[in-house]
Every structure is written in structure tokens, then in C-alpha cells.
Design a protein that fits this description.
Blueprint (H helix, E strand, L loop, with lengths): L8 E6 L5 H7 L10 E8 L2 H14 L8 H7 L5 H7 L1 H9 L1 E3 L7 H12 L6 E4 L26 H16 L3 E7 L6 E2 L2 E2 L1 H8 L10 E5 L11 E3 L10 E9 L18 H5 L8 E2 L6 H9 L6 H9 L6 E6 L10 H4 L6 E6 L2 E2 L1 H17 L17 H9 L43 H7 L12 H10 L3 H16 L2
Parallel strand pairs: 1-2, 1-4, 2-3, 4-5, 11-14
Antiparallel strand pairs: 5-10, 6-7, 8-10, 9-10, 12-13
Amino acid sequence: MTKKQLGKIPVIDLFAGPGGLGEGFSAVTKNNGQQVFDIALSVENNPMACQTLLLRKFFRCFSKDKIPQEYYNYIKGKITKESLYALYPNEYNKAQKEILQVTLGNTSNEELDAIIKSKIGDNKNWLLIGGPPCQAYSLVGRSVIKKIKKDNFEKDPRHLLYREYLRIISVHKPAVFVMENVVGILSSKLNGELIFPKILNDLSIKDKKNKATYKLYSFVSKNNEPKDFVVEAEQYGIPQKRHRVLILGIRSDINVEPSVLEKRSKKITVGDVISDLPKLRSGLSKDTDNYKTWKQILLRQRFAPNELLDDIKNTQKQEIGSAYIKRNSDDIIAELKSWYYDSNLDGVSDHVSRKHIAADIIRYFFASIFAQKNKISPRLKDFPKNLLPKHKNVQNAILSNSVFNDRFKVQLKDEPSSTITSHISKDGHYFIHYDPTQARSLTPREAARLQTFPDNFKFEGNKTEQYHQIGNAVPPLLAKQLGEIVWDIFKKI
């Protein structure tokens, strides 16, 4: 790389969500601590995710050792966001210019291209990251499109999004791109044909002579079979069994063979990353929401061991948490302390229980007791009959052993969690805390910990909006490892 190119590498982040990919790439540094990548533009359509992106971009406008105390005061709820931004108008204005709230495919190409061009300038060696929806389609510009009914293809908004991603690669020609998507695209079919091979072919981007202008690589294998593009996050130090398709594209004029991710010998578990957080009770949505009522609900349950009921009976008053709450301890796994903790924070934001009806709290109580004893989460067949939901599918699920049989899922303390998805915003049934004395689902901060967001990362919006953003994100600590591979590529250009 020439001296002219040794500055920060511009990054365009499409379908950014709350910025998980960008957060990880921003954490990659040179030996001297200098940041490698600059998130020049984050493009997202969700208004609240854009507010989260704006706040984090504002945070990154300051060097690591000069983050203003007012930022931490905002996290702690001592000042408003408006007051924070008013104190630092230059940084706020800069951050605003680097967040673009649009729906790709619905904005004009000319406008978007002009913005991207203004961010990358004449720099040919820049990075594109993002995860467009791909499930709906085969490829743009192929004759097969003619065979597809418009109702099934042209009218599907995801088609437009994927097409726009391809168009941006083709027009702006980044040196490298990283594309993320769900594992489901490997088995998705259109007109009876698997679409993933078509997607790979599409991403190669052909020139006028029908030669590929991008070479595609796996992050975990030297092979390029479809299965080789699946990254199992728990193998790489992420406390979550999150499996995603990740594709690395390198422009054909760049003759670099990328390295692959290194598997970790020991998996990081749920307990490793959330056991330092204060114990909370679940909230009550239909009963009087206080500690006394919650305690009475649990103490009436005869399936609970007497020693556990005694613990609950004798415990100090347990509340539902708060917008900012001090940590119980510094007992998070040692190797991740520097990643999660910030010396300016003695606690975490948004560690607040959601509210549940009493019947669900009892089910969570039973499920966590069962999981603690048996080291597995219970199936519906394991529940006492009086605890089963009065749902028409319950008995069928038990008899057929369907997916619904896994309706209540405890996140085991000594295992990585199951995938944190946006569904966590709708209910907590799949995300039950392992500790029976709390009898609740995971808080937004616990979900963020499992997604490996640092504690100084603040999600904007109400609890539902926070859960939705967290579930849609890429784990930043995994993204950092991807970024290190990409940085090695740029160093060799």
C-alpha cells in the first residue's frame, strides 16, 4: 500500500441496522492503536436504528481517551440526549452527515451514488459491508426472471434491495466487500432451483467480456462450496450459537489470498458474559407489579425444591432493574473484560425485566429449574399438564415432536446461547434466564452482551425497539475478527 493510502479505509455500511458490523470493523487497530477503518456512511431505513447509529457515530467522533463525561452521563440517565448533542455541535453535525436514513431501492440512484461518491472520493481501495435480503430471488439480469411471475418476484421488496446491493458493487467497485445473510439462503429455491449458487455467480459481477470482476472467498475455509460460507459464531469466541452466511468479495485486480478465522479452543458461555449483572425479578403485566406479589406466585409452586423456595423466601427485595444499574461484580470472563467494560462506567444501561403474565412466569420458573437440574432446556412434554399453554397446537406439538415443542427455551449457563433474533422483541419464551430465582426472560442488556456489544454502546428507543435492533445485529466481536482479515488484505494491496 502506498503512503497516500495509509490513512483510514473508508467503509460504506448498507443495511446497517444498529451498526454491529461497523462496530466490529471500527475496533480494528494498527499496532500503534490507530483505527484502521472509518465508517464513512451508514445506510439504514429503521428510524430508531438510525438514532442508535447516530449516537454511536457521535461517540466515535472523539478519541478513545477523550470521550466526554457527558456521554456517560447520558447513558446513566443524568442528562438528555438533546443536552448532550447541544454541548458538542461540531461532533453532532459530523455524525449526522454520516448517517443516511433511506430505504434502498426506493431512493434515486443518482442521489445515492452522489452521496457514496462524496464519501469515497477518488479512493479505489475502500470497503463495502452489509447484509441485503436475498431469500426472494434468483438473479438480476438473467433470462430466468422472465419465467417468474411478477407477483412472486418483481413485487417482492427484497428483490429490489438485493438488486441495489449488486448495483452499488458494480457501479462503485469497492476493493473488498463483505456480505452477511441468514443460513436459510443456502436451501432457498426459486422455480425448483437453489438460489445460492446464482447469488454467488451474481456477486462475481461480470465485465463486458463476461469475466468475473470479483473473486469470492469463505471466512472459514479454503473451499468455496455453499456450506463453506457458513460461519458458526460460537466457534470464534462468541457466546451464541449464531450461524450466518458470510461472503468475502475481493476485486479481481487485487491478487491477495485471504486468511481464515481461527477457531477458539474454549467456547464462551452465557454465564461467562452475564453473571456479573444484578439479579432481577420479572415484571407482572396483569397482577399488581411488585416484589411481594411476584414472590407469592413463586412460593405457591409445589414443583420447586424446598431449598430453592427457602432461598426465594429469605432473599432480599428484588426489583425489575432500571435504565442504568450498577454491576454486582467484575466477574465477567477475564479475556473479555476489556471488550465489554469501560472504566467510566460502573454499571450497564437497559438492564430491565420485561413484564409477563403470571402463567408465563410460572412456566419460566419451572423451565429454569428443569434446565438447572438436567442441563437441557425442557420440551413441552416435560411440563406438568397444568402448566401447559391452552393452545390448540400444544398437544399436536407434543405428539409430533414439532418445533413448537421447544416453545419455552432456557439459555443454559454453561453453554453459548441460541441465536438472538428480532423475535425476542415479541416475547421472552425462547430466551429464559438460567437462574430460577429470577424467573424471567433476558433483558435488553443481557441480549446485547450475548451479541457482544460493549457496555458503552447505547441502544435508542423503548424496550421493544431495543430488542428488535439487538436481534437484527451482527455480533461486533465477530465483526472485529472479520475486519482483521480484511485489514490484512488491504495491507497487501
